[in-house]
Amino acid sequence: MTAGHTLNVEQLSLGYRDRTVIEALDLTVPPGRITAIVGANACGKSTLLRSMTRLLAPRAGHVLLDGKAVHKIPPKELARTLGLLPQSPIAPEGITVADLVSRGRHPHQRVLARWSREDDRAVAAALDATSTAELADRSVDELSGGQRQRVWIAMALAQQTDVLLLDEPTTFLDVSHQVEVLDLLTDLNATRGTTIVMVLHDLNMAARYADHLIALAEGRLHAAGEPAQVLTEDTVRAVFGLDSRIITDPTSDKPLMLPLGRHHVNTPDRP
Fold first, then answer.
1. Is there a contact between 171 and 87 (Cβ–Cβ < 8 Å)?
2. What angle do CA 145, 169, 92 make, to 5 degrees?
3. How far apart are CA 218 and CA 263, in angstroms?
4. How far is CA 154 from CA 6, 21, 123, 185, 189, in A?
5. What confidence tens digit (pLDDT) does each residue in 55-79 have?
6. Rounded distance, CA 149 to CA 173, Å?
7. Any idea where the ABC transporter domain is (predicted)?
């Protein structure tokens, strides 16, 4: 199991040009746990993840990894501890699956050092874990959206960081592969103690797989805590503008959100 790293956000403000996306945000990511960030479109979820990996400089405040501002940590040093799978990444033209996944080992390479057996093992394990080993010699350009997403996840796994941030890791995946990927991340957390932070649109998947939920609304923290504390009818209404009913998932004992359309709100029982 890896040692837990602390990841905190203090009075963080982020934006693009004249638009503020995140304002005065404070939050703590529980070390060694799985955290899911949820919220409506354009509420700042992806922007927050980009700032956590120093891809976006804050207008104010700090992102702190083990008490040190991430924007002051050298990029390669940071990448040995904290990895990011961004939304809709772009692969170099013509690159093979094996070569792309191998790039996850770059933070561990030293000047003039040769590729090692440890690197081989890490890449092979990542390909096996994501069921992409049979695609190793194929060009990434030839793959379906779901296959490509699993290859990108394999690259993130090959990086073998203690903290892993994923922006919509189930994008383009059918339901069975969504479950496979989330099960894989759960296994990674359980066996290595990897701290995982992921943005998910599916509230029920987030509640089922996460130990900790963070709900953002218009760039501010609306609620944070265990799924049963955060996924409530009031939170769903406040964050998504949606009426719902929350029941207990019979397979996981986690909260399960049932959305109510306008034809289902206060509708009398039909005969």
1. yes
2. 50
3. 27
4. 24, 30, 8, 11, 15
5. 999 999 999 999 999 999 998 899 9
6. 8
7. 7-243
